Each structure stands twice: as structure tokens, then as C-alpha cells.
Known about the structure:
The protein is mostly helical and 409 residues long. The chain has helices at 30-42, 61-66, 78-88, 96-110, 122-155, 157-163, 173-181, 185-189, 193-202, 209-224, 233-267, 274-278, 285-295, 305-312, 335-351, 353-364, 370-391, 397-400, 402-408; strands at 2-3, 8-14, 20-27, 53-55, 73-75, 317-321, 324-328. The protein has 19 helices and 7 strands. Helix 2 (61-66) links the parallel strand 4 (53-55) and strand 5 (73-75).
Amino acid sequence: MDNWAERTHDVALVDDSGTLLAKRRITDDAAGYKNLLDLLSDYGDTEETPIPVAIETSRGLLVAVLRTGNRRIFAINPLAAARYRDRHSVWRKKSDPGDALVLANILRTDMHAHRTLPQDTDLARAVAVLAKAQQDTVWNRQQIANQLRSLLREYYPSALAAFEPWKNGLCRPEAHQILELAPTPTRAARLTRTQLQAALKRAGRTRGIEAEAEAEAERLRVVFRGEWAHQPPLVEDALGKQMLALLMQLEAASKAADDLAEAVAEAFPQHPDAEIITSFPGLGIQLGARVLAEIGDDRARFADARGLKAYAGSSPVTRASGKKSSITRRRVKNDRLNHAGYLWAFSAITASPDAKAHYRRRRDEHGDWHAAAQRNLFNRMIGQLHHCLQHRTLFDEGTAFATQLAVAA
């Protein structure tokens, strides 16, 4: 009944027969929210019998206001609302008041086909905000690092060769210190061993600094003074300035990712489900928080493990028509949860012998490719996670893979 926009919202209220009872445009501020609540109250909205609301978003202050009490909120996908719109108009006309009426009629006719927003606790929603923000900053950091790598290939290949032995080379503070000190290969070739040692020390290398830093500084000096192709001096200087601008963005993204990771590490363990989630092999604080962020802590959200598996995109889809039948991976899914599941299964193969045995069995006996075998492992473990959360029990490897152990015996 509410068509969401940036500054104003159109509201339409209908009864069980589809008769339009009221329509109004409210502002996106406290006064507008009060007008909406007053309108609902005028038409019988109470704490015991709240009026359900359909809206095109699941976030924002308006949703937070509407979630108060026992009111059911239905977040309707705008694409789904567009399909419903065609049922009411053959000319494909569109208006915000008309869309509000379409949303109201969606609830009137097909409320059973849509899900309400989950009733997650405030702590779970706070963890979700932090975990998603941390994941976004990690992706942003990697994107900027890729841009920086591409730029260095154009004029500064010696830097890529120098940082290659380091894990996450371009994201390390040592690389940042050296690039700030020598933004061009010409200046890097003039760096002394003492300058390189000082740069490594500023980056935080304290363990074995005298021995390790001296050897590392000598290695860097040899690389920078090697034979490399160069851009013309003016072009090289210009590219160096561009590189420094990208480096500033990368440092900011790295700091944001680290700060948000600390915030997640502080908030996630306070949640009652954290102990159960992290009891699974391959799930630590950060990845466990991402899983909690996507599944929430509303136990009524998924009727069974099959629903959660479909939501995560781990369960396969069977397509059958006549004599033809095919089994494919699920494409409509929660992409964030599916990505977390990929990392979870990848880590579990190393952390759990039985998980690794399951993966190998899928590869050797069933002929699965790597991605399919890993997805099958994720499908199994997320179903076990649903069981453990419902029964408030920790993961037990012997119980989780009992059938496999019996077959192996």
C-alpha cells in the first residue's frame, strides 16, 4: 500500500473487496510518518489487529517506523509489482499513486504468496549492518587494488615484481610506504638500502627487523635497479601522481575494512547464535557474521532446511518437461549468502577431515567438478546449521558425517 520514493511516499488503503478507502502522499520525515500512522489508526489499525503493509523496500526509517508493534511488513520486489501492474492496465501506464494501489491489491489477493519481513532481533540486525558493510569494503578494496595493479603494469612493473613474494602485496603497508617514497621507477632505482629499511620499519615490521629487514631491503634494491622499460619522464611523473591518488583510496579502503572487521568482532560474539555458528568447521568470526547477517535469527523465517538451502542457492533445481529432465544449479538466490557459502565450504575442506572426505567422494565417485562438489558440501552443512540453530546444539562432526563414516568402515 506504500509506494516508496526518496522524498515522498504515496499511500493507498483498500478493504477486502478492493475498494479504495484512502490515498495520501506523505513526506519522508517524522511528520510524514506520523501522518501515515494516524491514517492507519483512523481505519482500525491497533496493536491487536494491525493493518498489513506492502512496500517496495526492506530498509530505511519508514520501514523501521512501520515495524513497531506486531504489524506485518511485506517487501515486494519492484519487478514483481510491475508484473501485477499489467493486470490493471493494458496501456502500461505508470504513476506513483497507481503503484501504491497495485501494492495494496497484491496483499489483498496474494498475501499468502509473499513473505513478511523476518522478525530479527535488534542485535542480529546490527550485526547484519556491520557484516555487510565490512564485506562491501573488502570488495571495494580489492577493486581499487586491481586498478592500482593495472596502472603499475603500464609504467612501474618493477614494483609488481618487488611485491610479488608478499601475500596481498599491494594491500600491505610495506608496499604503501615504498610507493609513497618512490612513486616512479626512476625514483625507486635511486633508493638506498637504508631508505628501504626505514620504509619497512615505518610499515610496522618489528619482529627481527635488523636481520629480516636488511635482507628484504637488499632484495628490493636489486629488483628496483634491474633492467626495466620506462615511459617518457613527463608521462612517468604524471602516472606517478595518478598512482598516488589511487594509493590514497586503497589506504582508506583498507582502514575502513579493518575498522569494520573490529566492529564485527566486537558485536557478533554477543549474539546467542554465535557459538553455534562458529562451532562449524570453516566458520570464523567474520564469515560467521556474514552467515548470520543473511539468515537472521527469526526461527520462523524458514519452515525447514529445504527452504534455507533454496534461499542460499545450494540446492539444485530440477527442470522436467515431457521426456526431458535436467538438474542445474540455482540462479535465483541470496548472492551474499551464496558467496559466504563458497568461502565456508572452501575453508571446511581444510578444517574438517570428514568435510574433505565428503568433497573427495563427490569428485571421485559422483564425477562432480570442483564447484559442484563444493556446492554440495555447502548444501549439506547449511542444512546441518539449520538443525543446530533450531535445536540449540553445537556442531558435532561425528554426527554430521555419521553415514559417511559407516560407509567408510
